[in-house]
Amino acid sequence: MRVRFLTHAYPRWDGDVAGAFIARLAAGVRAAGFEVEVAAPSDGGQGGPVATDAVPARSLRYAPATWETLAYRGTMVEGARSVPGGLAALGMVGAFARAAGGRRVDCVHAHWWVPAGVGAWMRRAVGGPPYVVTMHGTDVTLLARSRGVRRVAGRVLRRAAAVTTVSNFLADRVADAVGIDREQILVQPMPLDTARYTPHEHGGGGIAIVGRLVPQKRVALLLDAIALLGSEAPAVRVIGDGPERSALEAQADELGLRVTFTGAIPPESLPDRLASADVVAFAGRHEGLGLVVAEALLLSVPVVATNDGGGVVDLMVDGAGCVVDATPPAVAEGLRSVLDDPQARRDARGVGEALRATVRTAAVAETFAGVYRRAVGGDA
Fold first, then answer.
1. CB of 180 within 8 A of CB of 380?
2. Which stretches within 61-105 are classed as H helix?
């Protein structure tokens, strides 16, 4: 069977983190015996998806080079609001629609309902192949914007042979927003790099906070919570960068906390930095999955997460750490309970090993192999 992935995020060079999980899935599906090809947008008229021996890739031109800035950068929604950006967005949808067809395509897997899913839907309407849509989070957030957006999304999803999300939180939001049957949405996280994230027996590194330093991650709330630990507060390492960094550094100084801001680090360095932590503190709101929480558990590091974390709650089963209200006192109490528990790391390891079985590339690829077979067979 020939499967074509459509995605606006995919590695452009070795080590690029853009869409790395999609690259892992593509390689896994290829290893399961399918012919796989990826189609992803050009970047500034030059860069685009990197082809490998296992998975060929096509770069899609969709606008003049100076306008091709929507993909890979995490700013598609904002960029599409300008006139050039809006025209470029339409061009990208058209490029996906063209890429969704052809004699050598049995099934299309569109990542994010827009723009790739819209392109697959347009092609299907004129006789193109069946398509599967996976929603990752940012595209689900768009559903709250307007009735018109929900109407388009509903058409794309109802015509799809299968709809999947990476967490129950997202599946519930999609079902409520567009009125499709929740039971028909498959929940399957994307594959993680389980070979790099292996259990570690010892911590000693205090509290780790990982993520882009933006309001959604609520790092300021975490610093306020850590300050409530008083003299018991261990060292804190904040891994990541973003527009809030200066304000957070000033806040840490004012609170008298021992905080190291590492800035952004190479992806290959994250496992070692994260593995030494005693606990990971996470307060992001409405996350699609909460990748750093999954990675922490794979490393046997317990987590304190807030109960409005979205897909993060899927991961926080008994033994993972604890889920608390999104207030400084509640987070502080959660941190104290984990730091004082000598069994916390061992319990987290058990949760991480169970998670590993569901996010191994081979396991995720096998799940989607079944989805593709049913889609092509008309039994989705």
1. no
2. 76-79, 83-99
Task: Say if CB 26 and CB 365 are below 8 A apart.
Answer: no
HSE-up (13 A, CA, CB side) for residue 327: 4
User: To the nearest whole number, what is the mean pLDDT of the chain?
Assistant: 94
Average pLDDT over residues 224-230: 97
When pLDDT is averaged across residues 314-339 and rounded to a whole number, the result is 96
For 61, 219, 284, the CA distances from 305, given in Å and listed in that order, are 41, 12, 8
* Secondary structure (3-state) at 158: helix
93 neighbors 115 (Cβ within 8 angstroms): yes
Cβ distance 82 to 63 under 8 Å?
no
Q: What is the largest CA-CA distance in the chain?
A: 67
Q: What six digits make up the tokens of 358?
A: 């569901």
Strands 185-187 and 162-165, bridge-based pairing: parallel
Q: Which residues partner with 40 through β-bridges? A: 59
Alpha carbon distance 284, 307 (integer Å): 10
CB-CB contact of 159 with 121 (8 Å): yes
In contact, 238 and 293? CB cutoff 8 Å: no
Query: Using CA atoms, how far apart are residues 75 and 81, in angstroms rounded to an integer?
Result: 10
Measure Cα distances from 16 to 12, 13, 255 in Å: 6, 5, 36
pLDDT band per the 50, 70, 90 thresholds, residue 104: confident
How many angstroms separate the CA atoms of 177 and 140, rounded? 9
Q: Which of 110, 147, 106 is nearest to 129 (CA)?
A: 106
Residue found under tokens 């008229």: 45
Q: Give every CB contact of residue 285 below 8 A, 6+ residues apart in sequence.
A: 216, 218, 306, 308, 309, 310, 326
Distance CA 330, CA 225 (A): 8
Q: In this predicted structure, what is the pLDDT of residue 58?
A: 94
Q: How confident is the model at residue 14 (pLDDT cuts 50, 70, 90)?
A: confident
**What is the rounded distance in angstroms from the CA atom of residue 142 to the CA atom of residue 149?**
7
pLDDT single digits (tens) 53-87: 889 999 999 999 999 999 987 778 888 889 999 99
Give backbone dihedrals phi and psi of 225, rounded to 5 degrees, phi first: -65, -45
Is pTM, for the whole model, over 0.85? yes
Establish whether the linkage from the previous residue to 115 is cis, with ω within 30° of 0.
yes
